[in-house]
Write a structure and sequence with these properties.
- The radius of gyration is 28 Å and the shape is elongated.
- It starts with 7 loop residues before the first helix and ends in a 6-residue tail after the last helix.
- Helix 6 (about 285-300) packs parallel to helix 8 (about 325-345) and helix 12 packs parallel to helix 13.
- It has about 650 residues and is α/β, with parallel strands linked by helices.
- An 8-stranded parallel barrel has the order 9-10-13-17-20-21-22-23. The chain has a 6-stranded antiparallel β-sheet with strand order 24-25-26-31-28-29.
- The chain folds into 3 domains: about 10-120, Sandwich (Immunoglobulin-like); about 150-375, TIM Barrel (Alpha-Beta Barrel), CATH 3.20.20; about 385-410 and about 435-455 and about 485-510 and about 520-644, Golgi alpha-mannosidase II (Immunoglobulin-like, Sandwich), CATH 2.60.40.1180.
- The longest helix is centred in the last third of the chain and has 19 residues, at about 485-505.
Length: about 650
């Protein structure tokens, strides 16, 4: 990355809010000027009276390397000969009222290991990538019609070494990638990796937006990790926080003694919920900073997408408990998404939004915010409330299951069972389930089966796959010792099998975002808390019938309407003994009876397992079979019918 003195045009674009590679103009860049090797430093500090570069090279004295102010908007720059990579530095800023501040570089590519806070001069462009096959494969099929299953993790607490130290980025490539692929996930989503001072902020309160945290290694180490993910067919999503940042003294807060990156108005600047400061999303320079940051992670780290944190906090002002629309945030998010998709049409931009804001995943030219996915927080809250309810009372909140299908196609949804639901006293997913030990596991298997069968892409937080019993312990690591216990091993095997079926079965994802992909068979069995529905692929005969029983009762010879006069195989039953269940399964083919039932042309009689999910697939007959004509005629009359 060769950088010279910032040009007037670059500065104009920066102050206009459209310098989308602002990291090439601002920050610290090893370069050559007038035949002399050194580093060019450039920073935006509009209210500063003086800005100097300090570091070991000048004994941290601000008198030797004073920066030159380039324009009235507050861009400062200086070239220092013989300063190269790995040098520690900060900006010494004299405020307009005479106070001296020491600030880390907002555009630094690398940072000192906490608790130290200096920035590090670093050349970001030396890594040689080997993921060309992955990059080509992303362009072949739209993700909307492909399986998408995300494993969400916190890098520092997934697993630790025997001495309680962190695995490095490179070591995690060997540990994590085979594990995630074994469980059939398509992507990992990593909680924020930007530099942050406090471990327990989990990265959500950052100081170095261009600096991957040095806790786990250097930038090339992270690039290696992502490269290995891609080479083995695994996508990488980053949790990204463009709404707010921490107020530590060396960070962005009051950068030159006055509001720079934050709002001027204290009432909207201060985020009392998290003790942070909100970005001023209406300020052009902040737009250049944040949009450049997203594009930077895409270009230099080959990131496949972003889970944009706390969109609700951005969309609405919260002043004294009163919410009002933040038009600056709306315009910023639209501008961000347009820029990102122009750079890469195949990127995933995922809104973590708990509001009912319309058209979150609609294109900007249609009046939308421009994301292509949104977390379905409503589904998550409803289904967890339903599962936590005592089974005998679930009939009284029956609509907690059915309601999500009324809006399932209003956005492109991801169904999250995320870290937020298994921390701060909320209990683990397993421990949320009511009842004794066996019932907890049975209901968790049922929950996962319903998650996979419900329209929308999937996300699970680490540890859920083997039934972590305690809630997430962010300072420790997952309870891997639980794998020594039979029920946790069986849960893990069930999850692998379920995920394998999900990935192999087009009806579970091919029409995920259109109403043609789902049809209720019976949504009204409140008394027994049994739900039956169909998931469909693009081909008329490509379908699955799903039966969910949210009580502990077993039913034999239970009639379920089916959409085709055919035999059916039970391809998965969560009550199988191989998963720790009671064995109430349907071993033999289920023969359809040609008699209307549940608004379908036929029905099967089956055993309904306790706290169980059954997935049925029609047995396809060979061409030329005598029943072909009759079967096709019946199917053509019933596909697409029934109550939604």
């Amino acid at each position: 990355m060769i950088v010279t003195h910032p040009t007037e045009y670059e500065l104009h674009l920066f102050h206009e809010g459209s310098l989308y590679e602002s990291y090439k103009t601002l920050g610290a860049h090893v370069t050559e000027e007038n035949g002399i090797q050194g580093t060019r430093f450039t920073v935006w500090a509009p209210h500063a009276a003086r800005v100097s570069i300090v570091g070991d090279f000048n004994n941290w004295s601000g008198h030797e390397h004073v920066m030159k102010k380039l324009n009235d908007e507050g861009i400062w720059s200086v070239f220092i000969p013989q300063i190269g990579e790995q040098e520690l530095y900060k900006y010494e800023i004299e405020t307009s009222y005479g106070k001296t501040l020491l600030k880390a570089d907002p555009y630094a590519f690398y940072s000192e290991l906490r608790p130290n806070t200096a920035s590090v001069v670093y050349d970001i462009g030396n890594y040689k990538w080997n993921d060309q096959k992955w990059l080509r494969s992303k362009k072949r099929k739209p993700i909307y019609e492909e399986p998408l299953a995300v494993y969400e993790l916190h890098f520092g607490s997934w697993k630790k070494k025997e001495d309680d130290s962190f695995y490095t980025y490179r070591e995690m490539a060997d540990e994590l990638i085979p594990y995630v692929l074994e469980h059939h996930f398509t992507h990992i989503e990593i909680m924020p990796l930007v530099e942050h001072p406090y471990d327990r902020s989990w990265g959500y309160q950052g100081t170095g937006y261009y600096s991957p945290t040095s806790r786990y290694g250097n930038p090339e180490d992270l690039m290696y990790f992502i490269d290995q993910c891609h080479q083995q067919g695994l996508g990488v999503l980053l949790d990204w926080v463009p709404g707010h940042y921490c107020k530590d003294a060396h960070g962005l807060y009051m950068f030159d003694g006055e509001p720079v990156y934050e709002y001027m108005n204290e009432h909207v600047r201060e985020n009392s919920v998290w003790g942070t400061a909100n970005f001023d999303l209406g300020k052009p320079e902040v737009q250049s900073f944040l949009i450049s940051n997203a594009l930077f992670w895409m270009k230099y780290y080959h990131i496949d997408g972003f889970r944009v944190d706390a969109v609700a906090n951005m969309l609405y002002w919260n002043t004294g408990g009163q919410l009002s629309r933040n038009d600056y945030a709306v315009a910023f998010l639209q501008k961000l998404n347009e820029a990102v998709f122009e750079a890469d049409p195949h990127i995933l931009m995922i809104a973590e939004d708990s509001t009912d804001w319309p058209l979150v995943t609609a294109p900007v030219y249609e009046g939308g915010l421009g994301f292509n996915y949104k977390w379905n927080m409503g589904w998550m809250n409803d289904i967890l409330k339903y599962m936590e309810c005592a089974p005998e009372y679930r009939k009284h909140i029956h609509d907690k299951v059915t309601f999500s299908l009324l809006y399932a196609y209003s956005e492109n949804f991801i169904l999250p069972l995320s870290h937020d639901e298994v921390v701060h006293g909320k209990k683990s997913l397993l421990n949320k389930m009511p009842g004794d030990y066996w019932r907890k596991f049975a209901q968790l298997r049922l929950l996962y089966g319903y998650l996979m069968a419900h329209p929308g892409k999937k996300l699970l937080f680490m540890g859920g796959e083997f039934g972590q019993f305690d809630e997430w312990k962010d300072l420790e690591y997952l309870d891997w010792d639980l794998q020594d216990f039979e029920m946790h091993c069986l849960m893990q095997e069930y999850f692998k099998e379920l995920m394998g079926i999900y990935k192999r079965s087009k009806p579970f994802w091919e029409l995920d975002h259109t109403q043609e992909g789902f049809q209720w068979i019976d949504a009204d069995n409140r008394e027994q808390s049994i739900f039956t529905f169909i998931r469909k692929g693009k081909k008329d005969d490509d379908l699955l019938v799903v039966v969910c029983n949210f009580t502990e009762h077993v039913y034999h010879n239970y009639k379920v309407g089916v959409p085709a006069y055919s035999n059916y195989n039970e391809i998965l039953n969560s009550d199988g003994t191989q998963y720790g269940g009671s064995g109430q399964i349907n071993k033999k083919k289920l023969k359809a009876v040609l008699q209307p039932y549940h608004n379908q042309a036929a029905y099967v009689e089956m055993t309904i397992p306790p706290f169980g999910v059954s997935i049925l697939r029609p047995v396809k007959t060979r061409k030329g079979n005598k029943s072909d004509g009759k079967e096709k005629e019946v199917r053509s009359n019933v596909i697409g019918r029934g109550k939604r």
